[in-house]
Amino acid sequence: MATRAPSLFAGLPQGLFQSMDMLQSVCGFSENPPPHPPPCEEVLPSQVVQLEKYVAEPVNLPGGLSLLKGRVNTADVFGVSNSDLVPGKYEGGLKLWESSTDLVNALKHEIQDGQLSFNGKKVLELGCGHGLPAIFACLEGASTVHFQDFNAEVLRCLTIPNVNLNLEKAHKQQACHTDNAAIPTKTTALAPDIHFYAGDWGELHSLLSVVATDQVDLAGEVDKIFLEEDVLLDDSGSQDGSSANQEIPASSNQIQQVRCTRRHSQCHACEWARDSDLSEGGYDIILMAETVYSVSSFKKLYGIIKKCLRPPNGVVYLAAKKHYFGVGGGTRQFKSFVEEDGILGAHLVVDIADGASNVREIWKFFFN
Ligand SMILES: C[S@@+](CC[C@H](N)C(=O)[O-])C[C@H]1O[C@@H](n2cnc3c(N)ncnc32)[C@H](O)[C@@H]1O
């Protein structure tokens, strides 16, 4: 049975609680060293556990979007009460953290602004917990959606029921709209290939089916992109549906310069495609919320991203707090860690300073 370390922070305001638990996690304030992580495993939808106390409730997001989520008791699942996080045992997946709804909002705006499309994409949510961002990807037409959480129990008791609830609701709404042909409908295919994976980031990549099974010639694909650019010369095809607003150069010399610069910069992705495990597939979009609180996990988190992100156009959306105070983790620390490697660059999508918590940020990472 997992136990929580005696709180060094008793009496502190409730609002600080989540960061304080994370502080214990990162600084190793627990009485014992973190236990060996649970084994990596695929959790089948049939292994769902319908807890009697699973209570479904709406999460209403700005702009009229409403998703459904369950509420389960940490004590019923892990036998741990009043704990957001127990390092190495339970990493917080039963709670809905603020940044995950920030991320859904940001994704919605990215789609509206023409910067992102989930249509036909392969998507992975790392550290999913409730899985709302990846559920949103399902509803937006992704072809493959994989949910990952540290704990199989979280997937069985919460993520799978959440996915079922939201897809059932969407199917019903689609059926209603189809019956009433007068109402225009969004014709999204709501039948993605969905899988659930549990385990530690450090051991996960061998389990993720999309990395091993797709037969895609990525090096060929990268060359094809260059060829298409040579024909079009409009400089509009950047990461994942986004459009770079650069002016078209006037002279053929300038055109040649742009072509060379792009060839040079895309070479990182090109080399990466050839050298990495990804000669056979990968994810187009990786989503994650509140996964960068522990500096000690950065290496394995970035490691799994590198192993799974599909060059040259794969992107990662990260939503998290700018700083987890007293801990050292946060978006800025993770961004620096990633950029040091030189393979991915980053762009701030939005920051949220609503006073509800530390400043939160959404970052988009892409191949340099
Ligand atoms: C704070 S929770 C965030 C849950 C959810 N994304 C949200 O924002 O509501 C952190 C998540 O990161 C994942 N996680 C943390 N450390 C991990 C590790 N070493 N390996 C795999 N997953 C990990 C856990 O699955 C956990 O659900």
TrEMBL record:
Protein name (record): protein-histidine N-methyltransferase
GO biological process, one term: methylation
GO cellular component: cytoplasm; nucleus
Lineage, highest ranks first: Eukaryota, Viridiplantae, Streptophyta, Embryophyta, Tracheophyta
Keyword Hydrolase: no
Family: Belongs to the methyltransferase superfamily. METTL18 family.
GO MF term list: protein-L-histidine N-tele-methyltransferase activity
Catalytic activity, EC: 2.1.1.85
Top EC group: transferase
